[in-house]
Design brief:
Layout lengths: L7 H19 L15 H23 L21 H21 L1 H13 L7 H22 L13
């Protein structure tokens, strides 16, 4: 068996299994419903089980060995890329946190805008202008979809506090 210390796919699969377990265990607490009338816990549970299966397949494939050799790819790869982009990763992870903070303080519009804008800046080729335009567009269509069409019970613009 190859050394698993340097296999990204193995650890990615384990992480998928972990996230899938959380969704599959937490989902049924919201009520499953039936196939005809799905409850709020049906999709998280179904997606969690799917994620567990995909994670197990990914980890097993990595543990067994490479399926096909890709030219230019090393047999043993480290978990982290050669030049990790910590700032980009931080920005992408900060986006959902910004949605929580700004969504709680200001509603759906500021939460969505902040999430998309901050996350978009994590892209290597992104500019302030492109991130701003993307955030405006996603916020517009997000509010249209989630507030107007799906009637998600979240205020679109409301100044509040934690």
């Amino acid at each position: 068996m190859h050394s698993l210390l340097h296999k990204r796919d193995f650890y990615a699969g384990l992480l998928m299994v972990l996230f899938g377990l959380v969704a599959a265990v937490e989902g049924p607490t919201y009520g499953m419903g039936s196939l005809v009338r799905m409850g709020p816990g049906f999709m998280p549970t179904a997606l969690g089980v799917t994620l567990i299966i995909l994670g197990l397949v990914t980890s097993a494939t990595a543990a067994i060995g490479t399926v096909a050799h890709i030219p230019g790819q090393h047999e043993e790869e480290s978990i982290l890329p050669e030049h990790p982009e910590w700032i980009a990763w931080g920005l992408i992870l900060a986006g959902p946190l910004a949605f929580i903070v700004f969504g709680k303080l200001g509603g759906m519009i500021p939460g969505t805008f902040a999430c998309v804008f901050i996350s978009a800046l994590g892209e290597r080729t992104a500019t302030w202008k492109s991130a701003f335009v993307l955030a405006i567009l996603v916020t517009f269509f997000g509010v249209l979809l989630f507030h107007n069409i799906l009637n998600v019970p979240m205020p679109i613009l409301e100044w509040g506090s934690f």
